[in-house]
From TrEMBL:
The protein's name: Homeobox-leucine zipper protein ANTHOCYANINLESS 2
Subcellular location: Nucleus
Coiled-coil residue windows: 219-251
Gene Ontology MF terms in the entry: DNA binding; DNA-binding transcription factor activity, RNA polymerase II-specific; lipid binding
DNA-binding region: 167-226
CDD domains: homeodomain, START_ArGLABRA2_like
Region (Disordered): 130-175
A Pfam family hit: START
Residues in Homeobox domain copies: 165-225
Superkingdom assignment: Eukaryota
Basic and acidic residues composition-biased segments: 136-146
Amino acid sequence: MSFGGFLENSTGGGGARIVADIPYSNGVGNNHNMPSGALAQPRLVTPPLTKSMFNSSPGLSLGLVRHTFSHLDLTSLSASFIVLSFGSKTDLLSVCGAGVRMLISLGYFFEQQPNIDGQGDVARMAENFEATIGRRSRDEEHESRSGSENMDGASGDDQDAADNPPRKKRYHRHTPQQIQELEALFKECPHPDEKQRLELSKRLCLETRQVKFWFQNRRTQMKTQLERHENSLLRQENDKLRAENMSIRDAMRNPICSNCGGPAIIGEISLEEQHLRIENARLKDELDRVCALAGKFLGRPISSLANSIGPPLPSSSLELGVGSNGFGGLSAVATTLPLGPDFGVGISSALSVVPPGRPAAGVTGLDRSIERSMFLELALAAMDELVKMAQTDEPLWVRSLEGGREMLNHEEYMRTFTPCIGLKPNGFVTEASRETGMVIINSMALVETLMDSNRWAEMFPCMIARTSTTDVISSGMGGTRNGSLQLMHAELQVLSPLVPVREVNFLRFCKQHAEGVWAVVDVSIDSIRENSSAPTFVCCRRLPSGCVVQDMPNGYSKVTWVEHAEYDESQVHQLYRPLLSSGMGFGAQRWIATLQRQCECLAILMSSAVHTRDHTDAESPNKIYLPPALAITASGRRSMLKLAQRMTDNFCAGVCASTVHKWNKLNAGNVDEDVRVMTRKSVDDPGEPPGIVLSAATSVWLPVSPQRLFDFLRDERLRSEWDILSNGGPMQEMAHIAKGQDHGNCVSLLRAGAMNANQSSMLILQETCIDAAGSLVVYAPVDIPAMHLVMNGGDSAYVALLPSGFAIVPDGPGSRGPGTTANCNNSSNGAVGEGPTRVSGSLLTVAFQILVNSLPTAKLTVESVETVNNLISCTVQKIKAALQCES
DNA sequence: TGACTAATCCCCC
DNA sequence: GGGGGATTAGTCA
């Protein structure tokens, strides 16, 4: 590069050119920052160029051109030239001589530094020039630029021509040749040292700074390119995932009901779900990392599938299927699944659910993944609904005129909520109830109980025939139950043969809403999970139901329970329909009442003040004779309670024909059609006598209040009025373990008056309980030696017993109070008690389990059936007579 | 308007 | 002091 070329270029643009020699001189007022003692001063020779000059000559540009310097004496004086070019490419550019400060302000310029060292080294001069001029303040730059902007007649070509560095912002590029060389070196060495850079700068006539910057920028560029490449790869992947996500979402948005082929409705994806998904992805990564580490440690690869780590949990929370294969943990479930295809008769066939964790043929990982996403959506929608249902009063809930109970305003409900499990099946009726109560348990403990199927069943023994957790979709976050989501199966019961067991498959989702505030929601999943190979008939669907629990300062919790279900009412005997529709059967009142009673029992048992009345001491010698060894120890109390619990569980199972036992229904002609008789074989169970067990149960309506009925039946002194085991006389209470503040909640040991030696060896274990929703009297004959063991803390599992007893519930608001079903002397729509003067009555279930043959292989005889049928009829008649309610 | 490039500023090792 | 990220500014397609 040469300045000659530049000059040529500038001249090549054509146009008039004025070159004026400008000797430097002192005393020019335009000087800026003129150092004292300057050797030379710029001397302005051109007349002052005015704005008007430029305005009137748009093509004018002013250039201070550094020319070839060979003929100039730069040591004494820098020569400068002003080139005025009209319409040419000439540019205002440079000044010769080092250290020259130039002001370009409408042609007035120059300030010269004293030490001129311009020995022909153009580049150096330019550098020095820049060092002083190029770093001027922005204002100055702007000012100077605005000066040239005023000369905007300068063509682009003129500016191109200025391949000189004096003006900092002057655009230029390194020549292709220079770049080629720089690139070549960059390929070999992206980080040249100073020596290499110096060498290159000389060779390419560039400053070392330029070379340095070039390399720096080149490296940055490489990095940017690399990032861009990576970005594009990631974007591609992202697009792919997004497309996949869209298609999945689409599938979820427009689910097709496999029942009717119409659209099924699922709620929107919420923020919580997004969080859960993120959390899930994070956990999955964590699992992968842990597996990788474990693999290194064990020296063999570890699969991240749930069945390869830890205990055989039904599933892992880590396979929620965000881009995962969705098959994690499947094999772990299959072996623990309690339900088999041949389980039970008639009832399990109503299962509409694919046995969880065991994929049906053809179910792909994607299907599972979609299914899980749908579960999640459903759970979140259900939670939302539950909380609103629990917290909203009118107009969603209105007080009924009779009884003051809250009733769901269905119109308002339909307006407020989207049906999250689809529309109500034809022929189904709705049952909705809400109840709030104070319970002596804290929220965390209650949540733990609800989320553990065993503990849940223990908490609601007479309501839950059996239950299991069939799949854990999420086990919660941060070691808590918050976010826990699981699939459950349950058989819910009302203690009567006239009410079929409700078999439900539902999601249970737990969420912490605030400190000390939790909610657990259940919602049926039958709308999502359909197994084409199983009948799709479902007798009950649970709409979002559950509880909101809030800790109270006194150790209690405020529990608001919402129970909302749709069921096939035709399966329910008319006698029980009012009860069910009032919510006292399967509804919130019963859940709350049971919860309160059970928690009170737990609190009493855990406190030191366990109230035990023992009548074996010397203070009551006149009451009964009993060996002193029957005194109860603390562990004995526990054993006795455990035995009583088993007895009551078995009683319920017999009444409701739940699948806990494999009952065979009997349809013998001699049996009253309203008495349900069933048999089963008892083999290898030390808890009951071996042989053929016959169960007979019936339910009748009595025009007596539940409380009166309960008090009558549990009173050992009145036992002879209905119990053949009483031998016609009163019974005595030998031991009493209180289970609640109400004396009606207790376990006791009764002894009949001894008629002969044989019977004197028998005791009666009895459990009674009562709460707002109903009451229970269950008893079973047990023998003295066995109870002796139990009362000393022995294992109650070996005490053989068969329970009998009564379940009492109010007949329900609006009940028409029909005649009994046992007597069958009235249709179910009978008019007994009808009208405003009707007496509030009770529904009494009577049930017996007796051993009809000690050989399991024996055949059931007609006599046995008739005997039990008579027994049950007689008992009912006796009760009616005693209570003077037989018409 | 965005990509490209030369150059600058500034932080941190 | 230099590397490198962030930024600026000029240019071009």
